[in-house]
Design a protein that fits this description.
With 161 residues, the protein is of the alpha+beta class. The protein is 45% helix and 11% strand. The strands form 3 sheets. A two-stranded antiparallel ribbon has the order 1-4. It has a two-stranded antiparallel ribbon with strand order 2-3. A hairpin with a 5-residue loop joins strand 5 (150-152) and strand 6 (158-160). Helix 3 (84-98) runs antiparallel to helix 4 (102-109). The model has no long low-confidence stretch (mean pLDDT 75).
Length: 161
Amino acid sequence: MIHVRQGWDRYEGAQEPKSAGGIRTVPIPEPLYEILDEKLLRLGRSERLIFGKTATEPFNYFSLRERTERAWSKAELRPSDLQLHEGRRSYSSFLSAAGVPDSRADRYMGHANHTVQGRYRHQLDPQYLDDAKTFTEYLRKADTPTRAGQVRDSEGQSVAV
């Protein structure tokens, strides 16, 4: 888990979260945990920081960006303009695709208002296919195209939905 206790501004430093929801514990999947744990062990940082170097500078945008670009280069990947905020959007989209309830995903994202989630979540390609299959199955159960509001039960009887 990652424990979020405060915000960070690259010019002003530590800041209080925008809302009470900003202080939170965020679950991370096991594969990411293993990567982060290995990196922390290699770095030998007692502060257990990934995005910064010291407790007085727990997040440094420029050094993080530089390390990211070096990692992309080493992996022979083309650098992109992705920022950390896109990581937030991806995390939210993956939580949704995995079936994590919106109420918990909102808590993990630090949203005090549940209406914010729509700005973060994006439909993933496999979800389009799943939704098309679900819709197709619904239509296949219909008696005729004009009766799509009714389906057949297990005994073949027409049932309104």
